[in-house]
């Protein structure tokens, strides 16, 4: 008993030693913090509920996959919406309580929208999508998927009349589109759509349109780059009558021809307005997402200040993670192209990887 009492007394005495004064100050400061307002408390509750819902859906889908249960139609949609709801609730919370904005995260999402402590949730999200979007067994992969994209973009641009420097920019932009659409994964399906498939996430009609445009430009390609033309002939023979979207080469080729090639001639002008490679990639990704207003913005003579206000276009942007997070963003009824590109922050990390990959390809070629 004596020893126990002595230890207790010693611990009691140490609690008042000078070294503990800082701790007491922290406790006092915490106790002095003002109570949350109802708005702040509601925002915190909404965020916690959104996090728990995201965790629940992740766990449910993981259990279904691991036990080989049938998945629902569009199995990625619920995950995507739950992730967006969590990020939106986070933005509402940090708007209400700015002190909740935390440290940077590895995904380079603005901290106001995402708590770095929840990085493992996004890791699991990506792993689930990798399973749900796995290529079909019949998919025809390439051993050089990144180089293929860059080579095709460059060759198409040369056939469109661009000089070597601007054609190289087209190859870099094309690689950015590949990362934006598939995170750099070839021949994937789509867990959020039954329409868009393959390395450039195209629909059947888009792929067919791209094939027709490629046939028209093929003689020019053959004259400029016989080796690339010969590779194209081999891939055409390989895919035969199968879905061109699940041969990496033809999927990229047809996707570029369908949506992007006609604008390659404008790259010199675009580069003067948008000198940064990532901004250039963002603009061409918008050709993929909202083609009509993007073309109108390019024709306007004032690209960055061109304003979009059509509710349908705003809906398409939100469905691609722009102005989708939090009450303030979702309340927007219009945006300029500069604001739209700034809102594409979820694409930043993908485009930066595409840029790094492109630079590695060019370095190997020069070496």
Helix and strand element order: HHHHHHHHHHHHHEHHEHH
N/C terminus separation: 79 Å
Oligomer: single chain
Helix percentage: 55-70%
Total helical elements = 17
Unreliable spans are 1-31
Number of strands: 2
Q: In which order are the strands of the major sheet placed?
A: 1-2
Structural class computed from helices and strand pairing: mainly alpha
Calculate the mean pLDDT score and round it. Answer: 91
How can the largest sheet be summarized? 2 strands, antiparallel
Strand content: under 5%
Can you tell me the overall shape?
A: globular
Tell me the count of domains: 2
Describe this structure in words.
The protein is mainly α and 367 residues long. The protein has 2 domains: 38-131, no CATH class; 145-366, no CATH class. It has 17 helices and 2 strands. The chain has helices at 2-14, 21-32, 38-66, 75-96, 119-132, 145-159, 164-182, 204-224, 226-239, 248-260, 267-273, 277-289, 291-300, 311-319, 327-330, 337-342, 345-366, and strands at 307-308, 335-336. It has a two-stranded antiparallel ribbon. Helix 3 packs parallel to helix 5 (119-132) and helix 4 (75-96) packs antiparallel against helix 5 (119-132). Residues 1-31 have low confidence and may be disordered.
Task: Describe this structure in a few short sentences.
The protein has 367 residues and is an all-alpha fold. The chain is 66% helix and 1% strand.
């Amino acid at each position: 008993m004596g020893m126990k009492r002595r230890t207790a007394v010693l611990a009691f005495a140490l609690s008042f030693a000078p070294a503990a004064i800082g701790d007491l100050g922290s406790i006092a400061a915490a106790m002095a913090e003002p109570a949350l307002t109802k708005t702040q408390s509601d925002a915190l509750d909404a965020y916690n509920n959104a996090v728990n819902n995201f965790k629940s859906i992740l766990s449910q889908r993981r259990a279904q996959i691991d036990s080989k249960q049938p998945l629902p139609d569009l199995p990625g949609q619920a995950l995507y919406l739950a992730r967006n709801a969590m990020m939106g609730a986070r933005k509402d919370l940090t708007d209400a309580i700015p002190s909740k904005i935390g440290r940077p995260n590895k995904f380079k999402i603005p901290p106001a929208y995402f708590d770095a402590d929840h990085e493992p949730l996004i890791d699991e999200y990506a792993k689930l999508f990798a399973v749900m979007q796995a290529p079909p067994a019949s998919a025809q992969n390439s051993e050089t998927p990144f180089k293929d994209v860059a080579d095709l973009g460059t060759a198409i641009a040369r056939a469109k009349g661009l000089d070597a420097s601007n054609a190289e920019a087209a190859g870099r932009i094309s690689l950015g589109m590949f990362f934006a659409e598939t995170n750099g994964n070839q021949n994937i399906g789509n867990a959020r759509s039954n329409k868009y498939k393959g390395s450039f996430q195209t629909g059947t009609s888009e792929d067919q349109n791209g094939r027709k445009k490629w046939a028209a430009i093929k003689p020019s390609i053959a004259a400029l780059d016989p080796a690339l033309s010969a590779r194209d002939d081999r891939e055409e023979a390989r895919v035969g009558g199968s879905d061109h979207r699940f041969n990496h080469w033809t999927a990229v080729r047809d996707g570029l021809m369908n949506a992007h090639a006609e604008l390659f001639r404008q790259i010199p002008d675009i580069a003067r307005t948008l000198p940064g490679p990532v901004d250039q990639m963002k603009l061409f990704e918008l050709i993929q997402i909202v083609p009509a207003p993007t073309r109108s913005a390019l024709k306007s003579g004032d690209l960055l200040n061109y304003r979009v206000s059509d509710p349908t276009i705003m809906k398409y942007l939100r469905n691609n993670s722009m102005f989708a997070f939090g009450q303030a963003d979702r309340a927007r009824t219009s945006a300029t192209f500069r604001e739209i590109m700034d809102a594409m922050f979820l694409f930043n990390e993908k485009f930066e990887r595409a840029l790094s990959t492109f630079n590695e390809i060019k370095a190997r070629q020069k070496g």
